[in-house]
Amino acid sequence: MGLFSGLVTLPLAPVRGVIWVAEVLTEHAEAQLYDPARIAAEMQEIADRLAAGEIDEDEAAAREEELLDRLPRTGPSAEPQAGPSADAAAGPVVDDPVGPYDDGASGGAASGGPPDEASRG
């Protein structure tokens, strides 16, 4: 960031700080929410409450289903990951094989070379 743009955007620094804090808090909350060890502890708590008679079978099943939905999908039962498709194996797609440039014979700006004497005018 240059000096001028840094000075111009200086009043936005508190907003950027608040956004950064919100992103960090979101990351930590999601890490706790989807932590397998925490989910296992909550599953054990549900089993204990079910055994103690504090909740019934239907409520325990519903809570366990919610917890299982939060577990990350891994292993052979996981959904297939997006891999290279048959289209990707065929090679890159070229929209315009000629391109917007001339053949470079004139040495003009369109070919990436120095401008012609005629185009300086």
Characteristic terms for this protein:
single chain; mainly alpha; 51% helix; rod-shaped; GvpG; Gas vesicle protein
Characterization of this structure:
- The structure is a single chain.
- The chain is mainly alpha-helical and 121 residues long.
- The protein has a domain at 20-70.
- 51% of the residues lie in helices and 0% in strands.
- The chain is built from five helices and no strands.
- The chain has helices spanning 3-8, 13-33, 36-52, 57-70, 86-89.
- The radius of gyration is 30 Å and the shape is rod-shaped.
- Residues 80-89 have low confidence and may be disordered.
Provide a brief overview of the structure.
The protein is 51% helix and 0% strand. The chain is mostly helical.
Distance between the termini: 37 Å
Largest sheet: none
> In total, how many beta strands?
0
Content of β-strand? under 5%
Q: What is the percent of helical residues? A: 40-55%
Number of helices: 5
Catalogue the unreliable spans: 80-89
* Structural shape: rod-shaped
Order of H and E elements: HHHHH
Radius of gyration: 30 Å
For the residues shown, what is the average pLDDT? 75
